[in-house]
Amino acid sequence: xxxxxxxxxxxxxxxxxxxxxxxxxxxxxxxxxxxxxxxxxxxxxxxxxxxxxxxxxxxxxxxxxxxxxxxxxxxxxxxxxxxxxxxxxxxxxxxxxxxxxxxxxxxxxxxxxxxxxxxxxxxxxxxxxxxxxxxxxxxxxxxxxxxxxxxxxxxxxxxxxxxxxxxxxxxxxxxxxxxxxxxxxxxxxxxxxxxx
Length: 196
Fold this sequence. Notes:
Blueprint: H1 2-17, E1 20-22, E2 33-37, H2 44-49, E3 56-61, H3 68-76, E4 80-82, H4 89-100, E5 104-107, H5 125-133, E6 137-143, E7 159-162, H6 175-194
Parallel strand pairs: 1-7, 2-5, 2-6, 3-4, 3-5
Antiparallel strand pairs: 6-7
Helix pairs in contact: 4-5, 5-6
């Protein structure tokens, strides 16, 4: 069912939003990996995942799962709930287990959507997950999704750029180390957003 829905989303994005994927060769064909993207719209999870051969497990705020049809769809699409505003140990543990089992985890390091389109400060959780799972991080820049249906029926192009893997070699797991990892990810996303 995942692949059926993913393929429908892919062709929808291609037809209506001229969906463009850059840097897909940077995604490992196997093994655990984190895709860390900027977050500017509700379109971002499908844009980040629809072009990939491998399924992507996204962290999503738990409120979305209580919305009947939407909750059903995002569950099929391998999203799992996370409580915002506090460290959700259960969600973090689940994320680490997925990665150790060789799956892809999709996260938005800022923890919430940017209303201005500007990059915000990352939450420390991304650094903790990467350190404990011992997997590479693929920074990803999403462009255009915050302009969809603005001022009427605007259909901008949706672009995603996947960057080179970031490998974490830190041995410490203190807060400063986790914050440094988050800052590095956001810096790489910033570079990708500036590419043309």
